[in-house]
Amino acid sequence: MPIADKMTEMVAASSMVKQMFEEGARLKAEHGSGNVFDFSLGNPDVSPPAGFKEVLKQLVANDALGHGYTPNSGYPHVRQAVADYLSSEHAIALPRDFIVMTVGAAGALNDALKSLMNPGEEILVPSPYFMGYEHYAFIAGAALKPVPTRSSFHLDPAAIDTAITDRTRVMLINSPNNPTGVVYTAEELAELGEILDRASTRWGRRIYLVSDEPYRKITYGVNAPSVFKAYPHSIVVSSYSKQLSLAGERIGYLAVHPQAEDGGLIADAAALTNTMLCVNAPSLFQLAVAQVQGISVDVSIYRHRRDMLCRGLAEAGYEFEKPEGAFYLFPKSPIADDVKFVGMLKEQLILAVPGSSFGGPGHFRLSYAVPEWAITGSLAGFKRAREKIQSG
Ligand code: PLP
Questions:
Q1: 158-167, pLDDT tens digit by residue?
Q2: CATH number reported for the structural domain that contains residue 120 in this entry
């Protein structure tokens, strides 16, 4: 075997996703891209906030702008800007030494997990969950252990408590959530904090909470509460991919709670893993985001699309939890076999992702990071797919 056994397995799994995208591209070539309704990708299509291009232009116009390596954790003044903003957002005093600038939230997750996990230790994750977590766990040499959630996709405290063992090192959560759109409440985070604290005492080793928050600013009528308030042994990982629609520019950060047990050591380790995995975060975009802390894309655009899609799908008879954040909808598949149902949607020129890919079988995921015409144009097809099932 020319590649590692585990990689053989992972390449096979990713080739299914690749096939799905190739099939989507084939359909678009055959029917015209305006006739195919592609809800498969979580790639933000809303413009970055007004004024962001000006910030970039001014940076580039400066002849003194360098293109060299930056300090591995990021430029000190950029980390300071992020620390200042997060200090006010989370109402804690966060020193800049507890911030590492990263290559997106993906880079921050790799840094956090590689820093914390010993080989074979477990990362608990509420299910369904973002598929990338399998990859980050693999890179960290750790095992991802899904924990069921309630039917509303909110946390199930009893299930989490039962799932914790002497091998659990990290609880990894994601709110607002991909793929369900759920936003955890302050109460459920506080309860989670208590569970993790009790379990840490029970097993005689600290369990850390890693909170993946790239959709934090994309919420509808609610605010995502602070995990730092709920549990001091927390690490927030996030990015500007969705908040500023900069997914391709690969810029994010990791922030360690200043009172986390061995927090300074974790921040130092994360700076080192950042060096190992990617050297440093992109320098131009470090400089740019430092100037636009706290600014977000126009969330009302996503909200409008969410409402259009929810209204249309409800009228067609689909069942789902109305998302409070992110830009995904995770409806129940009208048949148990979600892969088969996604195939039936494809016959209607609608591209979706089976829930099984997220550890959530019996559902399918729709990303509404799509133009409104795609939502309007798809609704008849959603209706037909369901009617086809009802008519046997
Ligand atoms: N975490 C979640 C839940 C995501 O949905 C994504 C990307 O879609 C990431 C992390 C990775 O984000 P980034 O592009 O900032 O690396």
A1: 999 999 999 9
A2: 3.40.640.10
Could you tell me the pLDDT band of residue 234, with boundaries at 50, 70 and 90? very high
Probe residue for ligand 1, chosen from 182, 212, 278 as the CB with the greatest number of ligand atoms within 8 Å: 212
pLDDT digits (tens, 9 = 90+) for 5-16: 888 888 887 877
Would you state the pLDDT for residue 222?
A: 96
Distance between Cα 2 and ligand 1 center (Å)? 30
Query: pLDDT digit string (tens) for 35-82?
Result: 999 999 899 999 999 899 999 999 999 999 989 999 999 999 999 999
Same domain for 84 and 31?
no
Residue 149's domain comprises 66-290
What integer pLDDT is reported at residue 256 of this predicted model? 98
Ligand 1, residue 130: give the atom nearest the CA.
3
SS3 146: strand
Residues 285 and 304 in one domain: no
Q: Are residues 231 and 163 in the same domain?
A: yes
What's the pTM?
0.96
Residue 80 shares a structural domain with residue 199: yes
Peptide bond into 176 cis (omega under 30): yes
Could you identify the residue written with the tokens 């000190």? 76
Token pair listed for 313: 């799908």
* Whether residues 214 and 77 fall in one domain: yes
Distance of CA 320 to the CA centre of its chain: 20
Counting the structural domains of the chain, the total is: 2
Measured distance CA(372)–CA(49) in Å, rounded: 19
Task: Please indicate whether residue 174, judged by its CB atom, sits closer than 6 Å to ligand 1.
Answer: yes
Average pLDDT over residues 269-273: 96
The verdict on residue 150 lying in a domain is yes
Any ligand 1 atom below 6 A from CB of 286: no
For residue 52, give the nearest of 290, 224, 254, 354 by alpha carbon: 290
Q: In the listed set 236, 261, 290, which residue is the last one of a domain according to the structure? A: 290
Q: Are 64 and 200 in contact (CB under 8 A)?
A: no
Same-domain status, 77 and 186: yes
Tens digits of per-residue pLDDT, 166-191? 999 999 999 999 999 999 999 999 99
Asked if residue 223 and residue 132 are part of one domain, the reply reads yes
Flag whether 59 is in a domain.
no
Q: Is 239 in the pocket of ligand 1 (CB under 6 A)?
A: yes
Indicate whether 188 and 147 sit together in one domain.
yes
Spatial contact of 81 and 293, defined as CB atoms under 8 Å apart = yes
